[in-house]
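Minutes, project check-in
Item: structure for the 411-residue chain
Input as provided by the requester:
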Amino acid sequence: MEWRSFGRGSRAERMLRAARPQPSEDFVRSLAAKAAPRRTARTPRLALAGVATLTMLVGLAAVGGVSRAATEVAHIASVATGHTNFFGKKLTMAVNRTNAANGQYGGQQTSSDAKTTTASPNSGGSVTATTPGGGTVTISWPAGTFPTNVLVVLDPTPPAITSTALVGESNKVVNIIFTDSSGHPLTTLPSTVAVTITSSGKGQQYVPVFSIDGGVTFSAIPLIGEATETVRDGGTPTLPDGWTIGYYVDANGNNVVLTSKPALLGVVYSANVNKSETGRTTPQAGSGKFGDPTRNHVGAPNLAQVGTVAMKGTKVPFSFHVDEQASIYISIYDSNGNPVWIARKGTTIRGHEYSGTPVHTLHLVILRPGQINTMLNAPAGTFKAGHTYRIRITAVDFDGHKVTQYTTFTA
């Protein structure tokens, strides 16, 4: 069966709905009984109520649909837990909001908060919506973006993710939809549109993201670098050749996403990121493994020397700071550009001593960003008094961004 034959209102969908039974009262009462919390000394009552409510919702929706589940879940939660719990209310509200979506564009449901406008070929335009918790999001486009009239929909509370448990506060996710005069969705745009999302004021731990699977997977949006030609010339950033999406931060601290592909867009806490800006699958957030989205950011790592270098015999104390996880490479060169040996025995990184034979390049992986204090040791006789040497340090992050810094010292 082709996917388009199974859309909302299709014959296949009507047959499925007709075949799905309504839950009997006995079934509803049995769910209430099964949802009675089994408390332990370590389990808060409200936490159990939340788990029970989710279980009940799945059971009810399987037979009676989302609408019936929403009307029953609060009552059952109250019966099972002895009070109307916070989790039950929140989940019921989320399900009801999804069920009460007031429109459908290109096969996608929208909430009652959605804003629409028509974009014409001969003029530019914009549409703005208020996001939950304050702030706004605006789509804008210049004249000539669309060859024919196009309906533009901006939904700041998309039903597809209304009940999704996003980690963190101040997450903002919006849906942008474009449909032609026949109601068919545009999967790609003939030109780029700009989506401006007001700043959450949360810093680099909040990441611009997009999703093309309804919020199951959030991918980090790559940062449009300052080296692009338009930025060098003092103009507004544009997408580099070959890019379909990218973002920059404007003078007001807002994230401006440039895209030629409709999708869910947002600025979310980094723990919600599933794929990095280059499309690599990230490890579990908070795991501390290389690529952990909570310990990385979009773009190249920031790398800087901390303090000065003052030799202590054969040892060179050297400290640096890196603001995300990175694979680090450290080398020392003499005044002629020749590498000198680094003795791993006697060399320490964050207080931990290396072992093994001397190397020209010391490699270490930084899983915990921050200040890195090192003590580089060299074999006896390596450094000549009065001679100048240079430390080269290179940081390569999870997405392959590379930064190199140099530090000069005199023996």
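Outcome recorded: Confidence is low (pLDDT under 50) at residues 1-20, 36-52, 60-101.
No further action items on this chain.
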